[in-house]
Amino acid sequence: MTGTLFLVGTPIGNLGDISPRATQALATVDLIAAEDTRRTGRLLAHLELVDRTLISFFEGNERERTEELLRRLRDGATVALVTDGGMPTISDPGFRLVRSCAAEGIDVRVVPGPSAAIAALAISGLPTDRFVFEGFLPRKAGDRKRRLEALASDPRTIVFFESPRRLKTMLTETLDALGDRPVAVARELTKLHEEVLRGTLAGTLARIDEATLKGEVVVVVGGMQDGGPADEEALVERARSLVAGGMRSREAARAVTERQGVSANAIYRRLIAGVGDGVGSGRV
Predict the structure, then answer these.
(1) Sorting pLDDT into bands at 50, 70 and 90, what band is 231?
(2) Tell me: the pLDDT tens digits for 63-79?
(3) Would you tell me which CATH number, out of the four given (3.30.950.10, 3.40.1000.70, 1.25.40.10, 3.40.30.10), belongs to the domain 117-221?
(4) Could you give the CA distance from residue 53 to residue 137 in angstroms, rounded to a whole number?
(5) Model pLDDT for residues 208-220, shown as the tens digit of each residue
(6) Is domain 4-114 in CATH 3.40.1010.10, yes or no?
(7) Interhelix angle 62-74/95-104, nearest 10 degrees
(8) Cα–Cα nearest to 218, from 82, 118, 130, 92
(9) How many other C-beta atoms lie within 10 A of the C-beta of residue 192?
(10) CA distances from 74 to 26, 53, 89, 125 (A)
(11) Could you tell me the pTM of the whole model?
């Protein structure tokens, strides 16, 4: 008789979020396959489960480990798959293993738990009735551009994962491809320094300081709306944020009006008119 693979959701930060059922699964399986054995080891120590058998299962060894775990499952072993935090297979290793188990008729069960993508969506303040999860954008600039352009007309809220050191580049490219949109940038969710920056892509870009930004980041971007041209006053405010961050007025006007149905010249004229009253930077 074959064994069972358990996909176990684990905390994305706060260890208090581990569920009783997840704890029971980790306490009773024959083997735990972990993306980072050190991090999982700390979780197990917190749960007073220090005698558990751990093996590594990460992107670099996923192919070989999948074959090894399949052999054990065929022999009747019970295996728990965990990642550094959140649900296995969601932008984390495990898809190959689950697909192979399904193909062979090996029982796969899920022990639901925290998800950074869902947590960020829920706290973003953006529509949650329809959304699309994009995970990490491609590494190559051309591939990223094509992926973002394919999302330009999607009305659903979009959820991305991103590294702190690439966040500013990602937001800039998203602004270029999608035009200015509402955005929420969530970092360190459930941890001591949890923070959510809400605003527009342009305005948030002016607020981001990558030198001090740390921790895991989820970016939630509003979908394309069919509600007609954007409000001109809001666009002027977004453009002013960009100018305050060092962008020239004409470039800021173009950035905030792309795909918005509003004249860039109209926004530019209002920016220039505002230079004298202290709201512009004077850079044209």
Answers:
(1) low
(2) 999 999 999 999 999 99
(3) 3.30.950.10
(4) 34
(5) 876 567 778 999 9
(6) yes
(7) 30
(8) 118
(9) 7
(10) 20, 18, 21, 46
(11) 0.78
Q: From residue 281, give the alpha-carbon distance in Å to each of 12, 164, 165, 196.
A: 41, 28, 28, 27
User: How far is residue 151's CA from residue 155's CA, in Å, rounded to a whole number?
Assistant: 9
Residues 256 and 267 sit within 8 Å (Cβ to Cβ)? yes
Residue 111 near residue 4, CB atoms below 8 Å? no
Give the start-to-end residue ranges of the domains of the chain: 4-114, 117-221, 232-275
pLDDT digits (tens, 9 = 90+) for 110-140: 999 999 999 999 999 999 999 999 999 999 9
Residue ranges with strand state E in 163-284:
182-187, 195-200, 217-221
Of 108-112, 199-203, 253-257, 270-274, which has the strongest mean pLDDT?
108-112
Classify residue 166 by its DSSP letter.
Answer: G
Neighbours of 53 (CB within 10 A): 9
